[in-house]
Amino acid sequence: MATFKHISSKNANYGDAEKYLTFAHDEFTMKPTLDAEGRLVPREDYRISTLNCGEEDFAVACMRSNLRYGKNQKREDVKSHHYIISFDPRDGPDNGLTVDKAQELGEWFCREQFPGHQAIICTHPDGHNQSGNIHVHIVINSLRIENVPLLPYMDRPADTKAGCKHRCTDAAMEYFKSEVMELCHEAGLYQIDLLNGSANRVTEREYWARKKGQAALDHENAALAAEGRPTKPTRFETDKEKLRQIIRKTLNESFTVEDFTQNLLQYGVTVKESRGRFSYLTPDRTKPITARKLGDSFDKAAVLAALEQNALRSENTLTSNDAIPLDRTLSSSEGASSRHTPKQSAPQAPSIGRMVDREAKRAEGKGIGYDRWASMHNLKAWSKTFMYLQEHDLLSPDQKAGGSNPSRRTKSPRNRMISRTFAFHKFPFFDTAFF
After folding, report:
1. Where is composition skewed (Polar residues) in this entry (predicted)?
2. pLDDT at residue 230 in the model
3. Which pLDDT belongs to residue 25?
4. Is the model's pTM score more than 0.90?
5. What's the domain range around 283?
6. What's the CA gap between 206 and 180, in Å, rounded?
7. Shared-domain flag, residues 293 and 387
8. How many structural domains compose the chain?
9. Could you tell me the pLDDT band of residue 424, with boundaries at 50, 70 and 90?
C-alpha cells in the first residue's frame, strides 16, 4: 500500500537534502552517522538523479535560480518541498518491484507533477523500521524556473509562471494522492485508498514518539532481564493510542451520546463539540485532541453511527427475548422464567438515588476521572431524590406519618423555603459541592 507524504523546509542549505539522501543518518536524532575516524558513512544502496539542473549540482543550481529571480532570500521563506512515496513491502516479492523500477516511477512522477522545478530524486531500498519498504524521495526547489501548462491542482495564474513558487495546497495533496494511486494501479502494485482518510491516523510526531518509546522500553526490559527481575509490557503505547482504546471500549458499551460522554468521564476524558466536530480532553492536557488527529473512527459521524448500531442491536436482542413461545416459558423452571420476563415499557417512578462518597473514593486512590464521574452521578442522584421527595410531599416539616392533609399541600413562599431548608437538614447525604 503506497503512501504519500509532504514536508516543507526553510533550510537555505540545499546540500543538506542531498547529504541526507546519500549518507546514513540516525533515525531518532536525524544526525549523520560517523565512522571511527569521524567521516560520514555512505548509505549502502540507493539510486539518485536530478531534474532541470543541467550539469550542475542540485544545491548550486537551486541557489543560482534563487539569485536570478530574487526569491528564497528571507529566513521565513519555504526553500524546498520534500515528497515521499513509500511502497508496500509486499510489492518486492509479490509484484517484482525493485529499486531501479521504483526510481523510474519516481522520476516519471516528478516530471509529470512538478514540471519547471529543479528536483533531486532518490530511492532507498528500506525504511527506518527495517520493514523492507522501498520508497522514493523527491526534493524540489520551491522556485519554478520555466513556464508550465496549467495542471488540475493549480488554481492561480501564478502557479504556471516562471519565477513563482510552488504551493502545496489541500487540493494539490488530494490530486497527488490520486495520481499515486493511479501510478500503483498501472504498475500492478498494492494500493490503499489515500483519499478517504484512515480509521487510525498516526501523525509523524506520534510515529517517532512510538519509535523512541519502544526503543527505551526494550532497553529497560533488557536491563531488567539481565538482573533477573520481571520485565514490563513489551509493546509501548503512546497517549493517543491509549485514548483510542478507551474510546473504542466506551463506544462498545454505550447506546446514546449521553452514555458515551458519561462513560468517558469515568476515565477522566471529556468530550467537547465545536462546529459539529468532536474533540477529547484528557486529565493531563489543557488542550483537547481533535478526532481528526486520532482517526476517522472517532469523529462525530462515526460515533453517532456506532451508537445507532448499538441501539438497534439492543432492540433486536430485546425483541428476540420477548418472542419466546409461551409453552416454552411455562415448561421452564420458575427461576428461569423470571429471567425472561419482558421489561415494562411504562416509565418508572423516580426513586431515591444512591450517592457516592467522593472523599472516601479519593482516599482509596481513585483519580480525577472517577471523581468527575462521581460528581455528575451525585448530581443526578440528588435530582432523583428531590423529585421523589417532592412527589410524595415529604419536604414539608409538618408532614404527618399517618397520611397527608390536603389543606396543607398549598404552601406559601415562606413555607416552601422552610421545606427546602428542612430537606437539607433532614437528608445530610446531599453533595453540597453543587450549591
Report:
1. 329-348
2. 84
3. 83
4. no
5. 204-319
6. 24
7. no
8. 3
9. very low
